[in-house]
Amino acid sequence: MIRQPLVSIITITYNAEATLERTIESVRRQNYPNIEYIIIDGASKDGTLAIIERNKDIVTTYISESDNGIYDAMNKGLDRATGEYVWFMNSGDELADEVVLSKAIQNAPEEADVLYGETVVTDMKGSIIGERRLSLTEELTWRSFRKGMVVCHQSFIAKRSLCGNYDTKYKYSADFDWCLNILKKSNIVYDTKLVLSRFLDGGFTKQHIIPGLKERFRIMVNNYGLIKTICYHIPISIKFFSYWILKGRF
Q1: 3-state SS string for 55-94
Q2: Could you tell me the pLDDT band of residue 240, with boundaries at 50, 70 and 90?
Q3: What is the pLDDT of residues 144-159, one digit of tens each?
Q4: 116 touches 191 (CB < 8 A)
Q5: DSSP state, 236?
Q6: Distance between CA atoms of 105 and 176, rounded to whole angstroms?
Q7: Measured between alpha carbons, how far is 149 from 142 in angstroms, rounded to an integer?
Q8: pTM, whole model, 2 decimals?
Q9: Nearest-angstrom CA–CA distance, 217 and 58
Q10: What count of Cα atoms within 13 Å lies in the side-chain half-sphere of residue 249?
Protein backbone atom coordinates (compact mmCIF):
# COMPACT_ATOMS: atom_id res chain seq x y z
CA MET A 1 0.00 0.00 0.00
CA ILE A 2 1.37 3.42 -0.98
CA ARG A 3 1.86 5.68 2.03
CA GLN A 4 0.07 9.02 1.62
CA PRO A 5 0.24 11.00 4.88
CA LEU A 6 -1.77 14.20 5.14
CA VAL A 7 0.34 17.23 4.19
CA SER A 8 -0.71 20.68 5.40
CA ILE A 9 0.29 23.37 2.89
CA ILE A 10 0.06 26.84 4.41
CA THR A 11 0.00 30.15 2.54
CA ILE A 12 0.27 33.54 4.25
CA THR A 13 -1.27 36.49 2.40
CA TYR A 14 -1.79 40.21 2.67
CA ASN A 15 -3.01 42.27 -0.31
CA ALA A 16 -1.79 39.45 -2.54
CA GLU A 17 -4.18 39.64 -5.48
CA ALA A 18 -1.26 39.94 -7.93
CA THR A 19 0.42 36.71 -6.84
CA LEU A 20 -1.95 34.41 -4.93
CA GLU A 21 -3.61 32.72 -7.93
CA ARG A 22 -0.35 31.17 -9.12
CA THR A 23 0.26 29.65 -5.68
CA ILE A 24 -3.25 28.24 -5.43
CA GLU A 25 -3.02 26.80 -8.94
CA SER A 26 0.24 25.04 -8.11
CA VAL A 27 -1.55 23.33 -5.21
CA ARG A 28 -4.56 22.50 -7.38
CA ARG A 29 -2.36 20.81 -9.99
CA GLN A 30 -0.89 18.33 -7.52
CA ASN A 31 -1.66 14.69 -8.19
CA TYR A 32 -1.09 13.94 -4.50
CA PRO A 33 -4.51 13.12 -2.99
CA ASN A 34 -4.02 13.97 0.67
CA ILE A 35 -3.50 17.73 0.99
CA GLU A 36 -4.90 20.12 3.54
CA TYR A 37 -4.59 23.65 2.16
CA ILE A 38 -4.68 26.50 4.68
CA ILE A 39 -4.61 30.21 3.84
CA ILE A 40 -4.03 32.80 6.56
CA ASP A 41 -4.86 36.31 5.37
CA GLY A 42 -3.99 39.47 7.25
CA ALA A 43 -7.25 41.32 6.54
CA SER A 44 -6.43 42.20 2.93
CA LYS A 45 -8.07 45.25 1.42
CA ASP A 46 -7.62 44.32 -2.25
CA GLY A 47 -9.04 41.39 -4.20
CA THR A 48 -7.27 38.65 -2.23
CA LEU A 49 -10.40 37.40 -0.48
CA ALA A 50 -12.30 37.21 -3.77
CA ILE A 51 -9.55 34.96 -5.14
CA ILE A 52 -9.76 32.72 -2.07
CA GLU A 53 -13.55 32.51 -2.31
CA ARG A 54 -13.27 31.64 -6.00
CA ASN A 55 -11.01 28.73 -5.12
CA LYS A 56 -12.76 27.38 -2.01
CA ASP A 57 -12.94 23.95 -3.61
CA ILE A 58 -9.19 23.59 -3.10
CA VAL A 59 -8.85 25.64 0.12
CA THR A 60 -9.56 23.54 3.21
CA THR A 61 -9.45 26.38 5.73
CA TYR A 62 -8.91 30.12 5.60
CA ILE A 63 -9.19 33.07 7.93
CA SER A 64 -8.87 36.79 7.29
CA GLU A 65 -8.00 38.95 10.28
CA SER A 66 -5.34 41.40 11.35
CA ASP A 67 -2.12 39.97 12.74
CA ASN A 68 1.19 41.04 14.23
CA GLY A 69 3.32 40.28 11.20
CA ILE A 70 4.14 37.42 8.86
CA TYR A 71 5.42 35.04 11.57
CA ASP A 72 2.39 35.60 13.79
CA ALA A 73 0.30 34.64 10.75
CA MET A 74 2.45 31.54 10.21
CA ASN A 75 1.83 30.51 13.81
CA LYS A 76 -1.90 30.80 13.16
CA GLY A 77 -1.40 28.46 10.22
CA LEU A 78 0.45 25.96 12.41
CA ASP A 79 -2.35 26.11 14.97
CA ARG A 80 -4.80 24.95 12.28
CA ALA A 81 -2.56 22.37 10.62
CA THR A 82 -3.62 18.76 11.21
CA GLY A 83 -1.29 17.08 8.70
CA GLU A 84 1.61 14.79 9.51
CA TYR A 85 3.80 17.20 7.55
CA VAL A 86 3.75 20.97 7.15
CA TRP A 87 4.86 22.90 4.07
CA PHE A 88 4.83 26.71 3.87
CA MET A 89 4.30 28.19 0.41
CA ASN A 90 4.03 31.97 0.42
CA SER A 91 1.87 33.91 -2.00
CA GLY A 92 3.63 34.05 -5.36
CA ASP A 93 5.69 30.94 -4.68
CA GLU A 94 4.75 27.63 -6.28
CA LEU A 95 5.16 23.90 -5.85
CA ALA A 96 7.65 23.00 -8.56
CA ASP A 97 5.37 20.79 -10.69
CA GLU A 98 2.26 18.64 -10.45
CA VAL A 99 4.03 15.46 -9.26
CA VAL A 100 6.61 16.94 -6.90
CA LEU A 101 4.77 16.16 -3.65
CA SER A 102 3.95 12.60 -4.71
CA LYS A 103 7.58 11.94 -5.62
CA ALA A 104 8.91 13.50 -2.43
CA ILE A 105 6.61 11.52 -0.13
CA GLN A 106 6.81 8.20 -1.95
CA ASN A 107 10.60 8.18 -2.11
CA ALA A 108 11.20 9.30 1.48
CA PRO A 109 11.61 6.92 4.41
CA GLU A 110 8.43 6.63 6.47
CA GLU A 111 10.33 7.89 9.50
CA ALA A 112 11.63 11.04 7.78
CA ASP A 113 11.40 14.10 10.02
CA VAL A 114 12.29 16.61 7.30
CA LEU A 115 12.16 16.42 3.52
CA TYR A 116 14.08 19.08 1.63
CA GLY A 117 15.17 19.95 -1.88
CA GLU A 118 16.27 22.56 -4.36
CA THR A 119 14.61 25.84 -5.33
CA VAL A 120 14.49 27.85 -8.54
CA VAL A 121 13.91 31.60 -8.54
CA THR A 122 11.25 33.09 -10.82
CA ASP A 123 10.09 36.54 -11.85
CA MET A 124 6.54 37.92 -11.86
CA LYS A 125 5.93 36.39 -15.29
CA GLY A 126 6.82 32.95 -14.00
CA SER A 127 10.06 32.74 -15.96
CA ILE A 128 13.01 31.09 -14.22
CA ILE A 129 15.76 33.56 -13.30
CA GLY A 130 18.13 30.95 -11.89
CA GLU A 131 18.96 29.08 -8.72
CA ARG A 132 19.33 30.48 -5.22
CA ARG A 133 22.59 32.09 -4.15
CA LEU A 134 23.18 29.42 -1.49
CA SER A 135 23.42 25.80 -2.55
CA LEU A 136 22.46 22.74 -0.53
CA THR A 137 25.01 20.85 1.50
CA GLU A 138 25.48 17.11 1.01
CA GLU A 139 24.02 16.41 4.44
CA LEU A 140 21.61 18.92 5.95
CA THR A 141 21.84 19.39 9.73
CA TRP A 142 21.38 22.35 12.06
CA ARG A 143 25.12 22.95 11.77
CA SER A 144 24.70 23.52 8.03
CA PHE A 145 23.16 26.91 8.81
CA ARG A 146 26.61 28.15 9.78
CA LYS A 147 26.88 28.92 6.06
CA GLY A 148 23.57 30.80 6.01
CA MET A 149 20.11 29.51 5.14
CA VAL A 150 21.31 26.82 2.78
CA VAL A 151 17.80 25.48 2.19
CA CYS A 152 14.89 27.68 1.16
CA HIS A 153 11.99 27.83 3.60
CA GLN A 154 9.67 26.91 0.70
CA SER A 155 11.67 23.73 0.02
CA PHE A 156 11.55 22.48 3.61
CA ILE A 157 8.79 20.03 4.58
CA ALA A 158 8.72 19.20 8.29
CA LYS A 159 6.90 16.81 10.62
CA ARG A 160 4.16 18.78 12.36
CA SER A 161 5.11 17.19 15.67
CA LEU A 162 8.55 18.82 15.49
CA CYS A 163 7.28 22.29 14.57
CA GLY A 164 7.42 24.77 17.37
CA ASN A 165 6.03 28.25 16.88
CA TYR A 166 7.98 30.88 15.00
CA ASP A 167 9.72 33.21 17.45
CA THR A 168 7.98 36.51 16.78
CA LYS A 169 10.72 38.56 18.41
CA TYR A 170 12.39 38.09 15.03
CA LYS A 171 10.55 40.19 12.46
CA TYR A 172 12.46 39.16 9.32
CA SER A 173 14.37 35.91 9.92
CA ALA A 174 12.23 33.77 12.21
CA ASP A 175 12.09 31.18 9.42
CA PHE A 176 15.88 30.74 9.71
CA ASP A 177 15.52 30.14 13.46
CA TRP A 178 12.49 27.86 12.95
CA CYS A 179 14.16 25.56 10.41
CA LEU A 180 17.34 25.39 12.49
CA ASN A 181 15.41 24.38 15.61
CA ILE A 182 13.48 21.68 13.74
CA LEU A 183 16.73 20.24 12.41
CA LYS A 184 18.10 20.10 15.95
CA LYS A 185 15.19 17.79 16.88
CA SER A 186 15.30 15.68 13.70
CA ASN A 187 16.76 12.21 13.37
CA ILE A 188 16.13 11.52 9.68
CA VAL A 189 16.55 14.44 7.27
CA TYR A 190 15.87 13.33 3.71
CA ASP A 191 17.26 14.96 0.59
CA THR A 192 14.57 14.48 -2.05
CA LYS A 193 17.05 15.48 -4.79
CA LEU A 194 14.11 17.32 -6.37
CA VAL A 195 13.38 20.93 -7.13
CA LEU A 196 10.56 21.34 -4.63
CA SER A 197 9.59 24.97 -5.10
CA ARG A 198 9.59 27.96 -7.42
CA PHE A 199 10.44 31.03 -5.35
CA LEU A 200 9.18 34.44 -6.49
CA ASP A 201 12.05 36.93 -6.50
CA GLY A 202 11.60 40.18 -4.60
CA GLY A 203 9.53 38.89 -1.69
CA PHE A 204 9.53 39.65 2.03
CA THR A 205 13.13 38.60 2.68
CA LYS A 206 14.59 40.64 -0.16
CA GLN A 207 12.57 43.70 0.80
CA HIS A 208 14.14 43.60 4.28
CA ILE A 209 17.57 42.21 3.45
CA ILE A 210 19.67 44.31 5.88
CA PRO A 211 17.56 43.91 9.05
CA GLY A 212 17.07 40.27 8.06
CA LEU A 213 20.81 39.67 7.90
CA LYS A 214 21.27 41.35 11.28
CA GLU A 215 18.70 39.02 12.81
CA ARG A 216 20.34 35.98 11.24
CA PHE A 217 23.63 37.06 12.78
CA ARG A 218 21.96 37.17 16.22
CA ILE A 219 20.40 33.74 15.67
CA MET A 220 23.75 32.29 14.64
CA VAL A 221 25.45 33.78 17.70
CA ASN A 222 22.78 32.14 19.90
CA ASN A 223 23.47 28.76 18.30
CA TYR A 224 27.17 28.79 17.41
CA GLY A 225 28.74 31.47 19.60
CA LEU A 226 30.04 34.94 18.76
CA ILE A 227 33.61 34.14 17.70
CA LYS A 228 32.60 31.26 15.44
CA THR A 229 29.79 33.33 13.90
CA ILE A 230 32.20 36.16 13.08
CA CYS A 231 34.56 33.64 11.46
CA TYR A 232 31.72 32.05 9.48
CA HIS A 233 30.70 35.47 8.18
CA ILE A 234 33.97 36.09 6.38
CA PRO A 235 33.26 33.54 3.59
CA ILE A 236 29.51 34.29 3.80
CA SER A 237 30.14 37.99 3.12
CA ILE A 238 32.57 37.30 0.29
CA LYS A 239 30.09 34.97 -1.42
CA PHE A 240 27.18 37.36 -0.83
CA PHE A 241 28.82 40.38 -2.44
CA SER A 242 30.43 38.35 -5.23
CA TYR A 243 27.05 36.90 -6.15
CA TRP A 244 25.43 40.34 -5.99
CA ILE A 245 28.02 41.78 -8.36
CA LEU A 246 27.86 38.85 -10.80
CA LYS A 247 24.11 38.18 -10.79
CA GLY A 248 22.66 41.54 -9.82
CA ARG A 249 20.49 39.89 -7.15
CA PHE A 250 20.91 38.41 -3.66
Answers
A1: CCCCCCEEEECCCCCHHHHHHHHHHHCCCCEEEECCCCCE
A2: low
A3: 999 888 999 999 999 9
A4: yes
A5: H
A6: 23
A7: 10
A8: 0.91
A9: 39
A10: 16
